[in-house]
Fold each of these.
Amino acid sequence: MSTGPMPMPMPCAACKLLRRRCTTQCIFLPYFPPSESHNFEAVHRVFGASNLTKLLQKIPFDRREDAVKSMVYEAKARVMDPVYGSVGLIASLQSQVLHLHDELIAATAEATSLRVQLSQTMSLQGHATMDIQQPLHSSCDHDFSIYDIGLQEEI
Amino acid sequence: MSTGPMPMPMPCAACKLLRRRCTTQCIFLPYFPPSESHNFEAVHRVFGASNLTKLLQKIPFDRREDAVKSMVYEAKARVMDPVYGSVGLIASLQSQVLHLHDELIAATAEATSLRVQLSQTMSLQGHATMDIQQPLHSSCDHDFSIYDIGLQEEI
């Protein structure tokens, strides 16, 4: 009696595309159900099944689902935009961060100026106490560059 | 006399790694000089030489340099962070955009409140005209999601 891995009655999306036998030990089985063939098609087209296998083998089981999700996302971005892929989105987001940062500096400076004006005006009126809002904490210390790959933060 | 492509006296980084003859018609030659072997090693490891070749063949010549740069960037991000790759940076940037957006809303609201306070105080003093700063234009209309891949903007 054979003790090898049991064949799956319905192959996963990867084995179906690669036309190979799918078993209970298939590395792709948990992440590419038959109903999500488009996901495997994208990663297969961009990374290749062999590279995806090698990458998954180096990652602990409990992180593989996240790894597959991020690779599917990246692959779809590259299919949509063959020139820039996900890097196009990174550049766009970095541009937005810089723009928002500049706007925040301007808004904070405006609030500071208004606070000074209000303080002076109320002093002229002889107010003993002034109910002027304190400045909000501002995170104007960001500094981003397209070449600073800070990948410490998780999704 | 042979009319085939001329061999290169020094192979490009790709041909050197793949141990193949490099010629003037090598698709990798313009983008992977021998001095930048680490760049090709990264894209070869993540995407594979075959997938990179297929991708470049579908892209016009004048966009290929940008495509290679973005793939090198993406590959290095994946080597540094095998689980999240460049998607980790996208998530981090999206989080920063949302955080800055919230701070900008708060700073703008603060400035508006101060402007009202100042206007009322000056009215009490009988000022005919008020030199109060006008609100700055704020781009508080961003709405980002990890699954909104907007790749229209170029680097």
Amino acid sequence: METVDEALNKAQVAFLAYKNFSGRKKATFLRAIADEIEAMGKELVETAMRETNLPEARIVNERGRTTGHCRMFADLVEEGSWVDARVDTALPNRMPAPKPDMRKMLVPIGPVVVFGAANFPLAYSTAGGDTISALAAGCPVIVKAHPAHLETSKLVAGAIEKAASKTGMPSAVFQHVHGHGFEIGQALVKHPFTKAVGFTGSLAGGKALFDLANQRTEPIPVFAELSSINPVILLPDSLSRDSAKTASMLAASITLGVGQFCTNPGLIIAIENEALQNFISVLSIEIQKALPGTMLHQGIADNYAKRLAIALEQKGVKVEAQSITRGDTTQGAPFIASVSADAFLKNSTLSEEVFGPFSLIIKCKDINELYAVVVKGHGQLTSTLIGDETEIAKHKALLNVLVEKAGRLVINGVPTGVEVCPAQMHGGPYPATTDSRFTAVGADAIKRFARPVAFQNFPEALLPDELITENPLGIWRMVNGEFKK
Amino acid sequence: METVDEALNKAQVAFLAYKNFSGRKKATFLRAIADEIEAMGKELVETAMRETNLPEARIVNERGRTTGHCRMFADLVEEGSWVDARVDTALPNRMPAPKPDMRKMLVPIGPVVVFGAANFPLAYSTAGGDTISALAAGCPVIVKAHPAHLETSKLVAGAIEKAASKTGMPSAVFQHVHGHGFEIGQALVKHPFTKAVGFTGSLAGGKALFDLANQRTEPIPVFAELSSINPVILLPDSLSRDSAKTASMLAASITLGVGQFCTNPGLIIAIENEALQNFISVLSIEIQKALPGTMLHQGIADNYAKRLAIALEQKGVKVEAQSITRGDTTQGAPFIASVSADAFLKNSTLSEEVFGPFSLIIKCKDINELYAVVVKGHGQLTSTLIGDETEIAKHKALLNVLVEKAGRLVINGVPTGVEVCPAQMHGGPYPATTDSRFTAVGADAIKRFARPVAFQNFPEALLPDELITENPLGIWRMVNGEFKK
């Protein structure tokens, strides 16, 4: 497609300049993006509210998170140690052969295409974590606007463009394209100048882009966040003491934001006994009290209704509780159901994501069946274990398996609420994401858009600043095997 | 296939134990592998010589490299900082929401399948860099023996098994399978318990495994080293001063080991002038003086003959020099040819690898045409620039493009000779490798077989040792944003 080809040609030209900009210079750009987003004030908040049905407090909070990650990545690249620099100096007299001078650092991978998420119009969209971490790495970004919040996307794109212009960036360091249908997205992923893709959305959509990227003459990495049902395991002894408190905590997590989070707890796994009955009773009351909420857009509401109906008609599934429904098809009503572990294990449909305020309780006969459910589970963003320390210590074998199934393990908490911090891991084995080796949230997200290059026998004057012997940037480096600044 | 299924089931059982072994314990295993390899003495050397036609000095050298990387990875995991630990402590009173305790480290990815390389019977084969870095990470390994050096592979496998037994490893921490045809290899890559693949070999073979891995229900990473022609660019002013010295240096690199290195310089790019004529004259004399050598096996020798013939029959290609040939089809004779940049740019066949002691000289009309040849080039393991510092400094734009084309840039050296050190990057944009974000040589090769997991709100007693607050292992960690020990 002509526009796509033009956009990537411009991005490649921008790349050859932008990739060499210092961390300090890129930081001024990223901070200016945050400033410009804030400068739009109410206009942005109201546009996003109108397009997504999300309440003001949530949008304001999400804006704070977005400007927060702009400034976090600005700090990260200004400081500069993220490039993982390694310096091995020459040993010209080594026998039998001299050791050459070798130095290595991460360099940006090239133009990146980002598909924004429907459920985070700001924090995972046009100026979301993918865009900002790619820009921080030194990669130009082309955002394919999400059609569900196109006006919001245009406003944010305008802010990024203004920031780029004010801070002297190449004009095509950021480009915004939109249009319905799959053609534009496919053309963006297939273009030879595209070197990586960020995507958050459906399993079918993300997998299609992943396949397309791998079928290119030059395959490229796709960081797609696809599908996660975030199991929560309730250990029996602890549940008998804390069933009411646990139920309240989980009800809040299930219904948060009308269940429209990738970390929504969609599966609760426990042993069938009196404590579980108490838990279900309290959870049912909370779910009945919860109100339905308007979902992000009609497509998501319809999909929730469809997926929920499919789950509920599976063999052995019993509705435990639902909130009132108002006959409004744009709304999602909280819902919980239960099924025996035996029926669950026989039916892979019940492991599929129902995106919305729904959770399925798996009733296990005993601890062995609970283990069987956990072992059979596929990749997740998170797995949660609820139980006191003594009881969890008895089930280290369970933890041992859970580590293989998710990118983040939570003890006595809820999976929703993804902290932005260096230790965050947002990504997990397939189908949670297409590359479990990288996080989409937190400082390490920048690593997705970089690759290492070694410089052998370079004169000092030709080395990137990060690798010059005297360390003019004062970054952390591994020098002849020792970490030092 | 039954054997494959059995092997992977055993590997998965071994994994659930082995992954939790301490770095110290894994180190005893890796060092024992080195000891057992050395203990085989002449038997291993002679078997490898017989199967590969490589001379004794080379095999002894390669054995040293193999035991060297066993001990290097032992040191690495014993020290322990490779897990990239991050600790972000809780802020329970933070407003508007408390910050949870979050910690992160790399954990092993699962059972790894390794296909050894024909051209390195020891260092990139059964106990090669892929196997040893995967074992170091905590992953069981299944090696598919290379049929061209099966006896060598069996001997090394025996050494690894003995080492595993002596140091108390699970028996299936390492398994050795062999057999002709593609079925076993395909079944190994497709098995659900396989979590990563290491491969060194042909573009067609590696790409087939890469595609297979991506078509699985759960796609898995493939680290395949495929094809690289390692361009060497001769800058004109410097060449006019140093043409004879440069020619001798390159002749040695082209003919080293009968050209059977993935870093063999297959392309020499220069501006057509008197200096280049002098260079070609000296290089021709060196090539004529060089003797043909017996190649690794008949298949490689036949392939060299075939690929060379294809290259030489392309339009505009002129033979510049060849060594004597002896009419022995197992031998590879050094060969150089030249072609105009114009003809080269029009013919993609000339960019394909000719695995053996062959190099093609691209004669450019001027510096603009030289740039055009570089810009058009695809991904490589290495790119080399020959010229003095002043002249290179005038061509920073060339360096700026070269960084995008290769994993390692060499100035005034040759691409052959891959130093094993922390700053090494052996891997490059496709088709050099299938994942340019990881190296196959040096300490960072371990990162290919690991993925990060975050531990949220874990009691100290349930944390892995690497993440315990008091840092009992004394490793480097990022704690609340600061690197410390």
